[in-house]
Structure formats: structure tokens, C-alpha cells
Design goal:
The protein is elongated, with a radius of gyration of 36 Å. About 4% of the residues have low confidence. The protein is an all-alpha fold. Helix 1 packs antiparallel against helix 3 and helix 2 runs antiparallel to helix 3. The relative contact order is 0.10. It is 53% helix and 0% strand. It has a domain of 72 residues.
Length: 123
């Protein structure tokens, strides 16, 4: 199913690129080649521009919908079903070999108190 969606996404993407490249940003492009100056032809300038614009929007929306469908139907994209990496599994399964110093009784004598009296100044 995912493979079908991916093939459709690639096909729609290529078609969208072709339709966009056929258009001329200044109004020429394919519409001026087919329509010319005569507005009474069946494939006139206006109709070709409308067709290219509608096909661009249709392909763009269909590409968006296909990408969303792949994300929704792809079971490996959900957070709950992603397998842990081997490092995470080893860390979780490893026996704790390190114990914090706070968990063991202290065998070191406490530090000696510091004399906080300031020396008297010599006059």
C-alpha cells in the first residue's frame, strides 16, 4: 500500500513539475503558442491558461493529500511502534554497575572546621 502511494507521489510530483515548467510567468508559454492572437479558437489563450492553472492546483492538492495519506497509513511513523535502538536496549537491560557516592556509607572523615576569624591588622 505504501509503495503504491509512493509511486503516485512520484508521478504527481513529476507531472506538477512539467505543468509548472510549461507555464510562462509573463503570460506567454504554452498558451501563446496554441492560442496566438485569435481568441475565437477552441484552445485559445484564456482556456489554456485556465487549464494550466487548474491542473497546477489539482496536482498540488493531490500531492498534499497523498503525502498526508502516507503519513496516516504508515505504521512505522507512529511514536509508540518505533523500535528502540540497540544502544537504548543495552542501556535498559544492563545491570547497574555504578553506584552513586550518596548511596554508600561514607568512610571518609568529615572535613575539619575552618577558622572564620580574621587576623588582626598590625598597626
Amino acid at each position: 500500500m505504501i509503495t503504491l502511494f509512493m509511486l503516485l507521489i512520484i508521478t504527481v510530483s513529476v507531472l506538477l513539475m512539467l505543468v509548472v515548467l510549461v507555464q510562462n510567468p509573463k503570460g506567454g508559454g504554452l498558451s501563446s503558442a496554441f492560442g496566438g492572437d485569435s481568441g475565437n479558437m477552441l484552445g485559445g489563450v484564456r482556456r489554456t491558461n485556465d487549464f494550466l492553472e487548474k491542473s497546477t492546483w489539482t496536482l498540488a492538492i493531490s500531492l498534499l493529500v497523498l503525502v498526508l495519506l502516507v503519513n496516516v497509513t504508515n505504521p512505522s511513523s507512529s511514536i509508540e511502534s518505533t523500535p528502540e535502538s540497540q544502544i537504548d536496549e543495552k542501556i535498559d537491560n544492563a545491570a547497574p554497575t555504578f553506584q552513586s557516592p550518596m548511596s554508600q556509607p561514607s568512610q571518609v572523615s568529615p572535613p575539619e572546621p575552618v577558622d572564620m576569624n580574621l587576623p588582626e591588622s598590625a598597626e
